[in-house]
Batch of 3 targets.
Target 1
Amino acid sequence: MIANRARKLICPIDDMPLWEFGTRVIWISVQLLSAYCLARPGTPFFYQLF
Amino acid sequence: MPQGDFIDFARFEFWLACAVAVVALQITAHAPLRKWLQASVNVGFLGLLLESRLVWVVVGTIAVWLLLKSMAYDRFRRRALLLIGATTFLLFVWNKSWDLALETRLYRVNAILSTIGFSYVALRLVEVSRAIFEGRCTVPDLPNTINYLLPFHMLAAGPIQAYDEFVEQPVPPPMLTPRDVLTAAGRISDGLFKKYVLAYAIDHLFLTDFTSAGIGYFLETQFFFLWLYLDFSAYSDIAVGIGILMGVRTPENFDRPYLARNMIDFWERWHISLSLFIRRNIFIPTQMWAMRRTRGDWPLTCATLAFTLSFVLCGLWHELDLRFLAWGCLHALGLIVTNWYRHLLRMRLGSRGIQQYMQNRFFKVMATCVTYEFVALSLVVAFS
C-alpha cells in the first residue's frame, strides 16, 4: 500500500509503467532546457510572416 | 516583411500569461461564464501586443458579430455575406501590400492586421460566414465569435479550425487528466525543441538565403524544406499542447510530410488545416460546379480545373506576388499529374494490381524521393 502510494506520487498515470513515465519526463526536461539555452527573443516562427 | 508585433514564444512573459490562462480556464471549466473568460483571455493577449490599438480589433469583431447576426434574417442575409466578403477581401489584400502601405499613413492598419494574423482570420471569417449562410450552424454569440476568430494560441500561424468543428467541441470540456498534462507538456517541449534547437541548427549550418553555389546550393534546397517543416510544425505542436491544457480542441497540422509518396499525399500531411479549408471551400465547390456543367462526363478535367483554381489561390494567399503564384501553379501541376497518373494506374493495373504497386517498397521509396525533391524545388521558386 505504501509502495502503491509512493508510485502514484512519482507516476500519476495509472496505466503507464514507471520507467516510461520517467523517460518521458526526462526527455521533456532535456528538450525544454536545450530550447531555453538557445532561444532568442525576436525570432518569429516563419509562418507568422504570412 | 510585415512589421506588426508578433507573439514571441521565446519570451518568459508569454508563457507566464499562458500559465495564468490555463489555470483560470481549468478552474472555471464547468462554469457557465467560461466562454466569457476564454474571450477575455484571447482579447487580453492581443491587448498585450496592441495596447490602445486593441480597440480597433474589438470594434471590428463586434461589427462582424452584428453582421453574422443579421444573416439570421432573410432580408439581410445576402447583403451581410457580401459585406463581410468584400471587407475581408480588401483587408486581406491591404494586409499583403506592405510596400504600398508604407507610402501612406495606413501602414498602421497593416501593423494591426499582421499582429492578429489576418491571413488566418480571413480564412476563419470565410468558414463562419459560409456555415451560417448555408444554415449549417446558428449564429455564435459574441464571446464565441471572439473565441473562434481570435484564439490566441492559434493566432500567429493557425491551425485553421473548421467552424463546424469549433461548434461541436464538448462544453464543458472533458476533465484534464495527468496523461493529458504529460501529452501537452510533450507537444510543447517537442515544438520548442524543433524550433529553437533543430531548426536553429539547420539554419546556421546549411541555409544562406540561396546564395551558395554548387553542392552547397543542392544541400540547401534539401535542408530548406526540412527547416521549414521543423519551424512550422513546431508552432503547431505548441498550439496543440496549449489547446490540450486549456480544454480547447486544436486541429493537427502535420503528419510527417517528408514521407509523402505523391503530391496528393503531401497535401494530406502538410498544413493539413489549410489543405482541408481549400478542399471544403474551393476544391469541392469548383469540382461540383464543373461536374454539373459537364454532366459528369469529364471528371478528370473537372478535377484539373479545381486543382488549378485551388492552388493558384493558395499561392496568392501566402503572398500576392509572382513567385508564390508560380509556387501555387507548380503544386497544382503536381496534383494534376498525380491525379491523372492514379487514373492511368487504375485503368492499367486494376484494383489488385494497384494494391501490389502500392505495397512495392522500391516504388514507394522512389515516389517519396521524387515528391520530396518536387516540393523542395517548389520552395526554391517561392523563397529564393
Target 2
Amino acid sequence: MSRKIIRISKILLAFREDAARLKEEAETSGEKTVIIDFSEVQFMSRAFTDEFIVVSEKLKKNGIKIRLFNLLPDLRKLLHNVNKTRKKIRKELAGHR
Amino acid sequence: MFEQKKKIKVPDIESEIQYIAKSITGIKLAAGISDFITYILSELSANIIEHSKTKTCVIGVFISPKEMKLNIEDCGIGIRNSYLQNKIFVKDDRTAIMIALNGISTKKLKERAFGLNSIRQLIEHQSGKMTIESGKCRVAIEKDLINFTDLKMPVKGVNINIQTKINPVNIYDIIK
C-alpha cells in the first residue's frame, strides 16, 4: 500500500497556516494514506491544533486518511482536549437551533 | 535568564517565536515553564497575524529564575474593530475585550476562539497578572478579579502585558 510521509522539521507549530500547508501537501501527494511525522515537534499552539483538527476532518471527507507518528504524549493530550471541546461546542450549538 | 524586546515585521513573527522557543529551552527553568511561555507567545502572535491587520508589532520577553514578563503590542485595528469588520456588532471596547476573553470568535459565529480565554486560564492558575489595552479600555486580570479602566489616551491596536512568578506548571492539564 503506497502512502505519503510528511516530516515536519519545525520544533514549534504555532499558526493555523501550518495546518493549511499540511493539508495542501497531503492533497497534492495523490495518496490515500498520509503519515505525518511529528518527531521534531516539541510544541503546538491551540490555534494550530484547532485548525489541524478541521483540516484532518476535511481530508477524511475527501478520502484521505491521516496517521500521526511520534506525537509527544502531551501534544496528543492537547489534540484530544481540543477535539473534545470542539465536539462539545457543536453539540451545544446544535441544541440551540 | 533571557531578555529581549524587539519591533518586528509581521511576516517575521514566526521566525522570532521559533528563535525565542529554542532560546528558552536552553535555560534552566521550573518544569513546564518553557511550554507556558511558548504557548502564550504563539497564541498572541497568531492573534496579531489573524486579526490585527498591522505590519509591525513589538514582542518583549523577560525571564528570570523567579518571574517572567511578556509584552506584545501592535498598532492594528484593535479588538472591537476586528469584530465589527466581521459583522459582529460589539457595543464598545470593554465589551469587545470581554467577549474575546470568553472565547467568541471573530471568524464564524458558530466557532469559538480560545486564544485569550486559554491564556487567561493559565495566568490565573499561576496567580499572575494580565492587562489588555485596546481602544479606550484597559482590562486588568489578577487571580479571579477583573478591573476595567477607561483610558484617557486610546490605544491603537492591542497592548498585552503578562507577569507571573516562575512556578512549575503543566499547561496540558489546563488547556481545554
Target 3
Amino acid sequence: MGGQNIERRQILRFIALASVAGSYPGFSKWCFACVPDHVTSTISGPAQTKLEPFMPLFFPPPKYRMLEHLTEMIIPADDTPGAKEAGVAEFIDFMVANRVPITANRDVRSTDDALELGNEAQNRFLLGLDWMNARCKSEFGRGFMDCLPEQQQSLLEELAYKAKFKPTSESGREFFRLLRDYTVVGYYTTRIGLESLGYPGLRVVWASMPGCNHLKDPEHIHLHEQADSPAAAPANARQKGAVCARREI
Amino acid sequence: MPVEKFDVVVVGTGAGGGTAMKILCEAGLRVCAINSGPRLEPAKDYRLHRQVYDLKYRGFGDPLRLQGKAHQEPYSVEESEYSEGHDLFEHDVAYSNAPGTDWYWKRCKATGGKANFWGRSSARFGDIDFKAADLDSFGENWPVDYAEIAPWFSKAERYMGVASTVQNRPSNPDGDYLPPIPWRCIDYIIQKGAEKIGVPYLPDRCAQLTVAHNGHPACHYCGNCTRGCDVGAFFSPTWFTIPDAEATKNLTLLTSALVRCVLVDENGLAKGVAYVDRATKREVEIYAQVVVLAASCLETAHIMLNSKSPPLAFRHCQLQQTAGSESLRSLVRWSWLWILAAAPGPTHHAG
C-alpha cells in the first residue's frame, strides 16, 4: 500500500465508492451512505425504499409540521432550494431524537455531557414550540400554524431582529436562536446547501490547486504583483526541486 | 526453547519510532517494533472523500460512541465521524490531572500515531533554537549546532518531501523544497496587510507533496488532511517509514501491545521491555540489545518512570514536556532523548 503510485483512476474509484448515496429507511428526503467504502452499495438513486409516509422520530406530527414550516421561513426557497427541500426538519428531528449536541455553550467532555446537552435540546425544542403557539393564541387567537402568513412573519421578526425585540419575548428569542442554529447547520450540511454557497470542497479531486485565480476580479486584481509575490506563478515551478526565490525579509 | 533476542526493540511507531525502525531495518538489524494500538489501514479506517451529508450524524458523531469507555473525552478534529469506530485513539486507558489543572492529552494508539494526522509544518531549527540558552539564559543549549545538523535536515526533507520557498531568514533556515503550495485569495490579502506593519507573511514549510515524490502521489487537495490521507500525499509513518521498514523483512511489528516498562539487567543496562498484550491482558517480555523509546512525549516518560532498579540515568535526561508540537522538531529532539536514556551512569532514584 505505502510507496505505490496511486493512479488517478484509483482515486476516482475511492470517490465513487464513498459517495454512493444509500437511503436510510424512514427518511423522505435525506440520502446518505452508511455503508463502509469497501462494501459496494446496491442502492442507487434518490431516497425512499419504502412507500410509507414519513414518521418523525421525536416530534409529534403537528409539531413536526410546524418545524418544517419554521425552517422554510428561515431559509426559504428563492433562486436556490429552501430548507424544506433540503430536509432540514428531518435533520432536526433526527438529531434531537438521538440527542446529538449541535450547539453547546460548553465543551462536550464525556458521554454524559453529550446526553445532558441532548436532553436539554429536546426540552428546549418542545417548550419553544409550545411558547410560540401560546404567544399566537394570546395575540392572534389561533395556534401558530393557523395564523396568517403576515402574523407568522411578524412574530418571527420580533424574535429574530434586534430592532424588533420586546421585553416579554425573551424565551421566544432564545428558542429562535436554537432553531436558527439547527436550521443553518442542517441546511449547510446538505448537498443543496453547499451547492447554494458554491462551496469548492464539493469537488474532492483537483489535478492542481488553483489557489487565487481571480486575476481579473476587481477585488483581487490589486493583490497580484507577480514579480514580488513569494509564491507567484507556481505553474512555472513544476520541475522537481525548483524553488521560488523572491523577497528577502 | 531459546528465547528470541532482537537487535533493537522500538517502542512506538509514530514520527520517531517509524523513522527509527526504518533506519535500523535498512541497516540490517533485526527490529521488533511494538505499537500500543491496532494496525492502521487507510482503506478501511479513513473515509475522506465522503461529504458531510454522507455521514449518519452529519459529522457530529454518535453521542453514545464512547459510552462505557475509561477515557470519556472525545479527541478533537482527528477523531471524528469520518473515521469513527476503528479504535485508532486511546479510550481504554484513562488518565487523571493534578487538582486544579486540566491537561488535555491527545493519544493516537494506532500505528503511525499522531503523525497520521499531523499539521505537516516542518521548519528547521536554527542556532536561535539550538543555542537558545545563550540568548535568553533559560534551559540548556543543545549539544549540537545548526551546521552539524543541517545535512540531516536535508536528508529528512528529501525523504519526506517538503513544499516551501527560499526565504533567507536565519531563524527559519531554508531547506530542500518542492514547489510551494499556491496561495489562496486570503494569503494575498493577509500578505498585503501584514507588509504594511512590517510583518513578513510567508509560506510555511509544509510536508505536503505538490509534485509526485519518490513513488508517492501529489496531493489532490481534497482538504481532509487532518483526518488522515488515504493516498499518502504527505509524510506519515503509515505511508512512508513503516512500509520501508517492512520491505527489508527485518521487522517484527507487534500491535495492540502496551509497553509497561524497560527491563534492566544487573549491570543497569537495558535488556528489553515488558508489555501487556491488550487482547489477553497478559504481560510479555521482549529482549534486545538496544531499546528505543519513541512512544510519544508523555508516554515515553511514563515508561521510564515505571522502570525500576537499578534506576535509569534520569539526571542525564531532559524530559521536556513539549507535547503538542507536530513538526520535525520533535523528531530531532526525541532522537537525542532516547540516546541519552539508554546510557547507564550514576543514578538517583526515579521513584
